[in-house]
Amino acid sequence: MKATFLYGAGDVRVETVADPVIQQKTDAIVRVVRACVCGSDLHPFHTRKPGPVGAPMGHEMVGVVEEIGSEVSTVKRGDLVVATFTYQDNTCVFCQEGFHTSCLHGGFYNKPEVGGFQAEYARVPQADGSLVAVPGVDENSELLPSLLALSDVYLTGYHAAHMGRVGAGKTVTVIGDGAVGLSAVLASKRLGAERVILMGRHQSRTDLGREFGADEVVAERGEEGVARVRELTRGEGSHVVVEAVGHFPAYQQALGAVRVGGTISRVGVPQYSEAPIGWGSLFSRNITLTGGPAPVRAYIESALKDVLDGSIAPGRVFDRVIGIDEAAQGYSAMDSRESLKVMIAF
Amino acid sequence: MKATFLYGAGDVRVETVADPVIQQKTDAIVRVVRACVCGSDLHPFHTRKPGPVGAPMGHEMVGVVEEIGSEVSTVKRGDLVVATFTYQDNTCVFCQEGFHTSCLHGGFYNKPEVGGFQAEYARVPQADGSLVAVPGVDENSELLPSLLALSDVYLTGYHAAHMGRVGAGKTVTVIGDGAVGLSAVLASKRLGAERVILMGRHQSRTDLGREFGADEVVAERGEEGVARVRELTRGEGSHVVVEAVGHFPAYQQALGAVRVGGTISRVGVPQYSEAPIGWGSLFSRNITLTGGPAPVRAYIESALKDVLDGSIAPGRVFDRVIGIDEAAQGYSAMDSRESLKVMIAF
Asked: Which spans of this chain does the record mark as coiled coil (chains A, B) (predicted)?
């Protein structure tokens, strides 16, 4: 099969490798129908050291089940499925508590032992917990982009809003007009936010943000951006700030925009380790800091209903479709911000 | 009047100064009946640079109103009152949202313009928001210690539990066997915690912690302490960790003891600025970090009922009573851990 590997910063290659096979009784093999490139794929795309072994890429996908292990019971050959961006058993204590990304028997893709989804086929561990069947939808459906968005991007935005306890009466500021930021706008509105302020500079993106429900767009960044958010909130700041970037300046911006007693909810994977959390930053104002990798499995069934009944169309974040052979161009298009989010069709 | 000043690290002096007077129409002058020394007073007691001007000390008190400004309406001369450790109007937008320590018209004591409470008299700004009358209790009541504990220490412990969303089914680990830590034990039980683990090494203190409801005591610190907490929680960690110390090792200990998806709630004033909050510390496990100075005014009315009806006796944290002339000895006794919490009786 063809599969995508990252050999070093900027070095994406599509190679022909052996098809994956069932290794555990709880595995499934899925034929990939749609995959995509994630904003978080751009972090190693920028920083990975060159080496002789490529990392298998991709962790979002809609596909059709080809084969299941002997202990898999919730999906069967032929089912159209959405895969969550981590695998998990959906039964352990942490899954039960809603934090599937820390499943005791789960893990992340893109390792030699569990490949990636930017490939023609994929092995999915813990298939009962990691795949969700979508009955009544086939692989030619117009819903595929929105189903694919449930693998990660929309529900990562949703997680940010959920962890920030977005709800009625709350003002939410979203930092970042990438696909996760726009998804957080959509999810915040879905959770009843009174007002959503989107911080972003790319008009085609912020226009989609407005269609997703953003009430205001702030194009300024840094101190000017903070000043503008405070101006829009009577100087008080925002109840919830979603940080959907992951770089340190976005954290600083969040500190500036957040309200007394408010919450900074991070879903951009932090590209920094230490940061201010003392008296002058978080403590004196009773700011809460929350967030992490989204337990997509916790939210996917409810979101699936919303997609199937047309309440939301999170797949609108995809603005370019490529074939697997063009994977490298897909990464470049997202890196240069030519493209918001690239879908790979098989 | 006599009042307590800190001139530098270790240099506590009681001096005779002019009595305070009404400066604003919203002020009250209160004759102090009981004051005390706070764990947070020990931070400047350790670090303040020597200088010619002393800082007025103390921010906890029960007293009797002597005089009110023309716009004060909720307390009157002769009322026995508890003062919260900050002053606030109790009406601004942040007070309404429950974060009185960030009141738009409020502030902290212990500044030249608003003195301290380790003194015979005190000027209380925003008296309507800052003083709570206790009807039917006089200045000889046996309840005075528990009323004094509502100024700060008990409700700071309560704030930690509240911000950590302590409730039924939750395991809470409290780091620190100081008076705030013990108060957090009491408050966590009050809020329905299933199990409270107290980390502390001073048996007289942890014994009181057990009486306040701690189910387990962990005397080990650092990595050993973390290992013990994890052992007590089937390796899973604690849903909520209250950090009631303020030093960096306590934050590290909290990171080790907290559960996936759990919350670190800080009420020890952080004596550090930067700390790890990236993938390996908070983010990958969806840990929430919360806390700050307690908005005592938000909780005091409910806690006052609990004290008056005997449901709680948070004043048990006081284990030594001194007169104002012995203030310096009081600081030393707390600093050397001879005393858990020192009350000053006038």
From this structure: none
Q: What is the CA radius of gyration of chain B?
A: 20
Over the stretch B134-183, which tens digit does the pLDDT of each residue have? Answer: 999 999 999 999 999 999 999 999 999 999 999 999 999 999 999 999 99
Torsions phi, psi for B335 (to 5 deg)? -60, -40
Whether the Cβ atoms of residue B322 and residue B343 lie closer than 8 Å to each other: yes
Sort residue A19 into left (φ over 0), alpha (ψ -120 to 50) or beta.
beta
Decide if A252 contacts A226 (C-beta within 8 A). no
Chain A, 112 to 151: residues with Cβ < 8 Å from chain B are none
Nearest-by-Cβ selection for A277 from B97, B261, B277:
B277
Q: Answer whether A277 sits within 8 Å of B274, measured CB to CB.
A: yes
B-chain residues within 8 Å CB-CB of A278?
A: 270, 272-275
Q: How far apart are CA B289 and CA A264, in angstroms?
A: 10
Query: What domains are there in chain B, each with its CATH number?
Result: 2-152+295-345 (3.90.180.10), 157-291 (3.40.50.720)
Q: Which of A49, A79, A63, A44 minimizes the C-alpha distance to A1?
A: A63
CB contact under 8 A, A284 and B272: no
Are B266 and A283 in contact (CB < 8 Å)? yes
The structure tokens 């066997």 sit at B177
Interface test with A, best of B260, B263, B264 (most A CBs within 10 A): B260
Mean pLDDT, range A128-155, rounded to an integer? 97
pLDDT of amino acid B207: 98
Helices (H), A109-247: 127-130, 144-148, 153-163, 179-190, 203-211, 222-232
